[in-house]
């Protein structure tokens, strides 16, 4: 459910680290007795700060974009271990978002966990939409849609501050939800999340391509949904879980191909280019 | 006032421009003055614009800007490209470069305001339309009823007008127009130009305009500057002897022979 949006032409690899960060921060805070309503925002803020680390390295130390993300993820590995205290931490079943209904089992539990997650996601999506429609969001969308226009209109690289921060806050929130759902936070839970998010987003961007607030949000959501559906389908037809990464890669390639067919003159502009892979 | 002093750019002997040297020793554009920049292809017009806008890095010199919006006198070459947008408004030949087809006209207009933080952090759609309408009101673009439409719906001429509008609403110290009507058919070019020049005259913005159309230059310019081989070859002032299309053609004939 990584609704990481990368509309600032920044191939951000911080996601693997911030996803785990969200999970471990939530787990640790829940063990400390912090109410979940506070633990989740703190996890999200942690993700935001992680994004800012990547931004600061890129902006002030001129570290290349991809390297900056890798460095942050590497540093976060230590941070995550410190927060967790050990590589793996169970969450108590009676606390957290899903602890509100401790006796629920089976069908009821599934329904409740689904609803709880949907509620949190809906909240995040509304916040994201409002942001994209705001003054700051407008500038972010312009910077993402046309860097040349951004320069001509006086929008500087500072836009990435919000882009990277918010994207990683959302990733951390996803990590928090996943940890709560599986009652477990693991130091390796984030590994490969960036690829999953990119796959989902590519799928979403084939369907929703306009830089309007609605389309940007829909690309993330719709993409994730369709991606999950594809993966479920793969599972149904007998593909094993260990093959998922390979399939994800194929999904990305197919999405790029569709984008190419549709894009006509500028094939990769809305695909590869949107991730800023050229720089 | 914009004063270019000993601005030099040397291109390497191998490569796209093969040892081309731009060297503008002294070129001053007064406040409210409209200066047309003409010259054969490869004379350095685009390079000069690139230097002013920060797309090309200079090898020496300074570009002093003073008396704009109460800003102190400064060398704009020291500003990063995106900071120059506040002082230099740009209209490129192909406005597709700096527009986003899927975003609405209103959204485009508000970008400048948003950047200058002259909008509240959150603003509803009605407020957006109202602000945008107020901004285009003075320009006579004929777009007032279409602010909610995506820019992709606009014709080439309308896109140039919108770009001009975007470049000038933020009240820059100077406008740079790079063949603003170069991609339009002659009839549309004439219409667009009439609106643009009338607006420049009323607002009193200093402007530097690149063109290959000599008639246009002579019609609207206060001064025509002829560039050749990267240097100022000749300047002609309106009202002085020797200002006219015939004379300009003569200059080009001698220049092609040399």
Task: Please sum up the structure shown.
By secondary structure, chain A is mainly alpha-helical. Chain A is built from 10 helices and 2 strands; from the N terminus they run αααβααααβααα. Chain A starts with 14 loop residues before the first helix and ends in a 16-residue tail after the last helix.
Structural class label of chain A:
mainly alpha
Cα gyration radius of chain A (Å): 19 Å
Oligomer: heterodimer
How much is the average pLDDT of chain B? 83
Shape of chain B: globular
Please characterize this protein's 3D structure.
The complex is a heterodimer of chains A (279) and B (258). Chain A contains 10 helices and 2 strands. Chain A has helices at residues 15-31, 36-60, 65-84, 106-133, 135-145, 147-152, 159-181, 193-207, 213-236, 244-263, and strands spanning 88-90, 184-186. In chain A, helix 1 runs parallel beside helix 3 (65-84), helix 2 (36-60) runs antiparallel to helix 7 and helix 8 packs parallel to helix 10. The model of chain A is unreliable at 264-279 (pLDDT under 50). Chain B has 258 residues and is an alpha/beta fold. Helix content of chain B is 33%, strand content 22%. Chain B contains 7 helices and 10 strands. Chain B has helices at 45-53, 105-115, 125-136, 156-169, 186-203, 214-220, 245-257, and strands at residues 2-10, 21-29, 34-38, 60-65, 74-75, 88-91, 174-178, 206-210, 223-228, 231-237. Chain B has a 6-stranded mixed β-sheet with strand order 6-7-8-3-9-10, with helices on both faces. Chain B has a 4-stranded antiparallel β-sheet with strand order 2-1-4-5, with helices on one face. In chain B, strand 9 (223-228) and strand 10 (231-237) form a beta hairpin. The two termini of chain B are 33 Å apart. Chains A and B meet through helix 5 and helix 6 of A and helix 2 of B.
